[in-house]
Amino acid sequence: MSKVISHMSMSLDGFVASPQDQIDGLFDWMWAPDSADNAQVLQNAKDAAGALVGGRRLYDLANGWNGQHPLGVPVFIVTHRVPEEPPYPEAPYTFVEGVEEAVAEAKLAAGDKNVVIASPNIVAQCLAAGLLDEVHISLVPLVLGAGIRYLPETRLELELAGATPGTGVTQLVYRVRK
To answer: What was the pLDDT predicted at 33?
Structure first.
C-alpha cells in the first residue's frame, strides 16, 4: 500500500537550506567514497516513489528541474500562481491549487508506490491536514545556525521506524502519529 512520505537531507539543527536557499554540505553524503549503503538508500527511495508533490517556490528554485525531475515520476506542484505557459509543457507536471487535491491526484498517479512530499512548506501543510504518513530524514553532521526548517515549529508526535548509519549521514525514518 502506498504511503505519503517526505524525505529530506537535514542539518543537526533542523534546516534543509540556509537563509539564502543554499544547500552546501547537506548532500555531500550522496557522493561520499565507499558509500554503498548511501547509494542503496537512494535507490530504494527512487524505486518506491510513484509521484512527487512540491511547492511552487521549490519548482522555481529548481528551474522546473529542466523538464525532468530526478525521480522520473509525475510531479504535482501546489501553487496559487499557475503558469499560463509552463516552460516545459511536455514535462509530467501538474499545477494544483491545494495540497489536499495535489496529494489525492498524486496518490492516483502513484498507484501502489509512495507519494513523496518535497517542500518544507508543503510538508507542514500535509502534517496540518493529517496527510503525511512518514518523515524520512537524512541527518548530516552539519550545523547551519539558521535557515529553512524541514519540520514546522509545532508539536509533532513521531514513532521511530528505522535508523541506519551511513558515510557522513544517519538515515532516520519516523511514522507520524495521527
So the answer is: 66
**Backbone φ and ψ of 99, nearest 5°:** -65, -40
Residues 76-103 have pLDDT tens digits of 999 998 888 888 888 999 999 999 999 9
Cell readout for 176 is 507520524
| pLDDT beneath 70, residues of the chain | 33-34
Question: Cα(41)–Cα(164) distance, rounded to whole angstroms?
Answer: 9
Domains belonging to the chain, first-starting first, are 4-176 (3.40.430.10)
Predicted confidence at residue 87, as pLDDT, reads: 82
CA distances from 171 to 24, 29, 71 (A): 19, 11, 19
Q: What is the CA radius of gyration of the chain?
A: 16
Q: Which residues contact 80 (CB under 8 A, 6 or more apart)?
A: 56, 97
| Stated pTM of the model | 0.92
Residue where the block lists cell 544547500: 23
DSSP string, 91-131: SSEEEES-HHHHHHHHHHHHTTSEEEE--HHHHHHHHHTT-
